[in-house]
Amino acid sequence: VPEEKAEKYIVRVTMKADPFAIDDKNESVIVASDLQGR
Amino acid sequence: MCLAAAGAAGEECRLTLKRLGSRWSYSPSDYQIRATYPQQLHTQFLSPGVAGRVRVEVAGMEDQAAAFKRIVKKEPAKYQCEHPFKGVAKLGGQEFAFVFDAVGAKPDEKAKEEAEKAKAAEEKAKSKPKSSLLGALSRALSSDESSPEGLRPRGRAIIYNRLYFDLNHNGDLTDDKVIESESSGGTVYSSGDYARAQFPEITVPLEAGGTKYEYSFTMYVTYQAINDRQAYAYASLNASAYREGEITLEGKKRRVVLVDFNSNGRFDDPIKLRTGDRGRSRDDEVYPEFGDILLLDPQADLPVYLNPADATSAGNRYHVSKLVSIDGKFYHLGISPSGDKLSLNPAAPAIGYVTNPNDGFTAVVYSDEAFLKIRGDKSKPVPLPEGSWKLLSYTIDRTGMAEAEKPAAEKKAGAASKEKPGTLLEALLNAMAGSAASPATARPYRMTRVSAQAMPGYKPVTVRKGETVAMPFGPPYKPVVRVDYPSGPGQVRLGMTLFGSAGERCTDMMVQGNRPSKPAFTISNPKGEIVYRGSFDYG
Question: Which residue of B has its CA nearest to A14?
C-alpha cells in the first residue's frame, strides 16, 4: 500500500441521546485508501 | 381448559387450534400473534449459456430442486408460464411440493394497468444508458461477461397467480384443488421487472407427535427479472394457525397463546443459537434461530411497541425453551409437537442473582440448558438458576422515567406533539410478517427505549447459589464509524453503529417518541485538521 494511501484519518461522532449516555471520547480510524474508494 | 395437575402446583392444559384468516386489516393485538418468521424459498431462472457463470447463489436452492425431484411423482402436463417456480415446503416435519404458475389474464386490472405503464417506461428507458444504483446492482448480479449487461434488454416479471400445492401429500400435483392468488387491494403488484402476489389462507392436514391436526398458512411470491436472461423468484410461507387455551399459575387463570413463530407447522420448537455463518452480519452478533413463541395474557398486557422476533420488546412474550421464567418464578415448559398440550411445572433450581445498573431492563440470557427472559431494575437483583449465562439481547425501557425528570412546562409542550410516522424497523418487521398492510403496532407515545443484540464474545456470567453477580450491558454507547461501500468515483458511504458497554450492538433507540438527533461527525487528517463535517441519517 503506498504511504499516502495508508494515512490514517480520524472520525469523531457527536451525539445526544439522553437518558442513554453516548461515549463522547469516541474515535474511529479510517485509512486513506478506504476514503478514496476501493 | 385445564386437565390435571402434572406435578406439584403444575398445570397441563389443552390448546385449541385457531386460524388467523385474511392477512388484511388487523389490530395491534392481532399483530402479536400474526407476526411470524417465514419459511423462505428461492429459485432462479437462467437462459442457456448463462448457467455456470452466476455470481449470486441463494442457499438452499439446490436442496429444493433435489427434494422436488425426489418427492413429486406426477405434475400437470404443461405449465402455462415460461418459468414455473417449483419448491418444497416443510410442515410438521413432512415435505410438501408446490409449483407457482401464471395463467391467462392478470388477476387484477389495476396490476395490469401498472404493468402496461411500466412496459411503456421500459421502452423509453431502453434508449438511455443505465447509470442508477439499481442498474449497477443488476450488472453486479449478472455474469454474462460476453455481453455487457447494460446492453441486455430488461426482463418482464411473471405475476404468479396459480399455486399447485400437494395438500394431500401423495406426490401428485394434479389431484389437489388449484389455489388462485388473491386479486383485491394491494395483493397483486407489478412494476415491469418485479411482481408480487399473495395467496389466500391454505389449510393442510398434518400429523406431528402422533396427533393429526388441520394447519393453516399463507404464501406470497415475488419475481424479479434481472434482465431477459436471468430472474429470481422468492416465496414466503407464514403460519396462519395458532393455539389458544387457559392455564392456572399461582392460582391465577392465564390466557395462553402459542404461536408457530418459525412457520414450520410444529409448535414445540425451542429457540437456539444459529450456527455457522448463515445470516451473520459483519458485526457478528449472536443470531438466534427462531423457535416458537408463547404469549401469556396477550390481550390484557398488550405491548405498546413490538419487535416480534425479540421477546424483550414485550412483557407477555416468551421464547419456547425447556425452562421459562414467569413473574420471577421458574417453570419447566412442555409442549406437544402439534401444540395441543402444554404444561408448566414449577422448577426448583438452585438460585443466585444478577444485577445490572439500568432501570427498566428486560433481557434474554442463555446457558447450555435454556433461554430465559429476565426483567429488573438497578435496585433489584434478578434471580437466575446456577450456571454460566450469556446475554442474547435486551431492551432498556425508560418510557415515563425520563418524562418524570422533565420540568412541568416541558411535559405540557411535549403532550401536544403528534404521533410520528412508522420507523424503518417497523416497516421491516411488517415485511417479515409477510404483509403489505399498514404497521399494526400502535405507535407508543413518547417512548424512550434502547434495544441491543449481544456478541458471541460476551463474557459468561457465573451464577452461584445465594450469591449476586453483575451482568454488564447497556450505556454508555460508543459510536463506531466504518466505510460501508464506495458510492461513486472518489466517494464512499460511511456507516455508524453504536456498541454498548459489553460490546453489544444497538439495534433500536428512541428518545421521547423520536429518534435521537442526527449524529454529527468530523473527519480529521493525519495533521489533525478537520477535512470534512457531516451527519448520519437513520436507516
Answer: B520
What tens digit of pLDDT does each residue of B7-35 get? 455 789 999 999 988 656 567 778 888 88
Interchain CB distance below 8 Å, A12 and B524: yes
Q: First CA to last CA across chain A, in angstroms?
A: 12
Pairing of strands B211-225, B230-239: antiparallel
Q: One-letter amino acid identity for B57?
A: E
Rounded to a whole number, what is the largest CA-CA distance in chain A? 45
C-alpha cell at B360: 427498566
- Model pLDDT for residues B149-180, shown as the tens digit of each residue: 445 677 788 899 999 999 999 999 999 999 99
| Pick from B441, B4, B490, B475: nearest CA to A37 | B490
DSSP H or E stretch at residue B496: strand B491-499
Q: Which residues pair with B197 in a beta bridge?
A: B188, B221
- Interchain proximity B476–A8, CB inside 8 Å: no
- Taking CB atoms within 8 Å and a gap of at least 24, the contacts of B111-119 are B111/B159, B111/B188, B111/B189, B111/B190, B111/B195, B114/B189, B114/B190, B114/B191, B115/B157, B115/B159, B115/B190, B115/B191, B115/B192, B115/B195, B118/B190, B118/B191, B118/B192, B118/B193, B119/B156, B119/B192
Spell out the alpha helix ranges (H) of B72-198. Answer: 109-126, 133-141
pTM of the model: 0.79
> What's phi and psi for B263, nearest 5 deg?
55, 45
Phi, psi dihedral angles at B29 (to 5 degrees): -70, -30
Alpha helices in B337-418 (DSSP H): 401-404, 408-415
Nearest Cβ partner of B482 from A7, A9, A28? A28
